[in-house]
Structure prediction request, 285 residues.
Amino acid sequence: MPVSNLRDIRKRIRATQKTKQITRTMQMVAASRLKKAGEKFKQAKPYSMKMESILSHLLSSEGEIKHPFLDPREIQSVGLVVITSDRGLCGAYNANIIAAAEDFLRQDRSVPVKLILIGKKGFDYFKKRECPILLYVPDVAGKPDFRKISEITSAVIQFYLAGEVDEIHLLYTQFISALSIKPVCAQFLGLPKKGTGEPVQTIFEPDLNVVLERFLPEYVASRMYIALVEAATAENSARMVAMKAATDNAGEMIDRLTLSRNKARQAAITKEILEIVTAGEALKG
Prediction:
């Protein structure tokens, strides 16, 4: 093998080793962030479940319920909140969410769908499409802050109350385990007026509708918060898995290139020995 090819192999080995160091570092950073995000998700999950339980109890109570979030509407437009990441290098995380959003848009419905995009990757994709974008929020995905999330939730609620959309769905990535995540779509606004439990007789002070007036905005904000926290956990999980796969692939490539380099060196040494032996035989002759 020519010396130039041997040099090329050595350059490729050095470049791959540097890439492996980078992906290994990113894997460790993602693992650290996954641990922090996972702890935040574990802390927020019981609160969210309790809020669901309270809402079900309130809606199962006897009495007339009046609230804009619960009043039935004629559906003339649908809103879809899509949560993607702001950065890449997280495997199929964003591709799966975008594919789920495209499936939602392709569903046979006679009303338009308007998008609320949280995360740069979703905006970069949908800004080139024909679907109208009501709101774009960068620099939140992966860094859930309750104050900023409350502002986002307030904006989404205003779209609903103003009649921009008559139903809102929330599309995010569910975290199942460090190796298992999946996109899920849940109805966010346009809530059912009755709970799933048996009717219960409860005494409210001052009034059931006053309690709902204070409770429902907090409930909606908690749902947005838990969705963003869970999406952040899933994003870090996907990034950790992707960087581990990249690190393993780089290691395998280094092994193959090292084998090729050794073969090239052996071939070059064998060629030099043959040339020396041939020259020696020629001198003897």
Q: What stands out?
A: Residues 28-240 form a domain with the Pyruvate Kinase; Chain: A, domain 1 fold (CATH 3.40.1380.10).
